[in-house]
């Protein structure tokens, strides 16, 4: 069974009636790496935010690892424990150190002894090669380093699924590569990864599939090879 499934999903924003997702039918296999691209405003961000219930949808069904998203609060909790998310803005707490940003997250630290939480957090910081900055504050780091911290924070959940929403869009060009390298380094762990991005480096290097959206619809799906060879 697919780990994520969209069945006839429709969403509009009640505030302005904007029909942002139109009849979305998609499924993602466990471990699949998918890039979602398309013009600004085409619904990419909304699509992935529906997966972990950051957005509601009006029609259809989204099933994440056997749980229907949106049915009840318990289901939402279960899904959020399995889904890590990285945003364009790193969303780190500026008044906490890098390490504190990781270990003060209640979702994974709950009831864990402090030493164990620190050990786990340091292991994730090492995985994104930022452990030496554990005691610094986010604003002492470059944008690329801050995004790596945000990735490490998501990894603390040991998520089955990672969602990336324009993870390199706020970065200077020289920092994009270090974040891409970290993301590419995560692809051998069997985690399902969906990435909304204009940056095609990730797609070319590791994606199994590229999805192109326009005006709330999926208008093309292909392997990267086919996608980049068919202008
Ligand atoms: P992006 O394309 O990077 O997602 P947007 O500028 O479309 O950025 O949206 C930025 C934020 O503003 C998002 O959280 C989005 O949900 C919200 N937003 C976008 N359009 C509207 C709108 N018409 N009314 C209210 N909020 C909006
Ligand atoms: P993309 O990620 O492809 O840029 P989004 O999913 O962010 O697209 O948004 C698609 C469109 O939906 C936006 O251009 C905006 O018009 C509308 N939208 C997004 N967020 C909101 C919101 N919170 N309220 C109302 N409209 C929104």
Automatic annotation (TrEMBL):
Domain ABC transporter residue range list: 4-231
Keywords: ATP-binding, Cell membrane, Membrane, Nucleotide-binding, Transport
CDD domains with a match to the protein in the record: ABC_HisP_GlnQ (cd03262)
Pfam families: ABC_tran (PF00005)
Coiled-coil blocks: none
Organism: Hydrogenophaga crassostreae
PROSITE patterns: ABC_TRANSPORTER_1, ABC_TRANSPORTER_2
SMART domains attached to this UniProt entry: AAA
PANTHER family: AMINO ACID IMPORT ATP-BINDING PROTEIN, PHOSPHONATES IMPORT ATP-BINDING PROTEIN PHNC
Protein family: Belongs to the ABC transporter superfamily.
Listed name of the protein: Glutamine ABC transporter ATP-binding protein
Source superkingdom: Bacteria
GO MF entry, a single one: ABC-type amino acid transporter activity
């Amino acid at each position: 069974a697919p780990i994520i499934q969209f069945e006839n999903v429709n969403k509009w924003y009640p505030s302005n009636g904007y029909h942002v997702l139109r009849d979305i039918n998609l499924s993602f296999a466990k471990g699949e790496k998918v890039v979602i691209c398309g013009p600004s405003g085409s619904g990419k961000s909304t699509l992935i935010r529906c997966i972990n219930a950051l957005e509601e949808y009006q029609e259809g069904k989204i099933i994440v690892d056997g749980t229907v998203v949106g049915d009840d609060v318990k289901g939402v909790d279960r899904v959020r424990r399995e889904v890590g998310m990285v945003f364009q803005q790193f969303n780190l707490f500026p008044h906490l150190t890098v390490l504190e940003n990781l270990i003060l997250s209640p979702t994974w630290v709950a009831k864990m002894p402090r030493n164990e939480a620190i050990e786990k957090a340091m292991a994730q910081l090492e995985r994104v090669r930022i452990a030496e900055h554990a005691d610094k504050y986010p604003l002492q780091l470059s944008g690329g380093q801050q995004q790596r911290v945000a990735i490490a924070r998501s990894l603390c959940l040991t998520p089955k699924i990672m969602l990336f929403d324009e993870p390199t869009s706020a970065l200077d060009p020289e920092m994009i590569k270090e974040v891409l390298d970290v993301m590419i380094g995560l692809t051998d762990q069997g985690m399902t990864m969906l990435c909304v991005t204009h940056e095609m480096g990730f797609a070319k290097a590791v994606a199994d599939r590229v999805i192109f959206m326009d005006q709330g619809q999926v208008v093309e799906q292909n392997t990267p090879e086919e996608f980049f060879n068919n202008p």
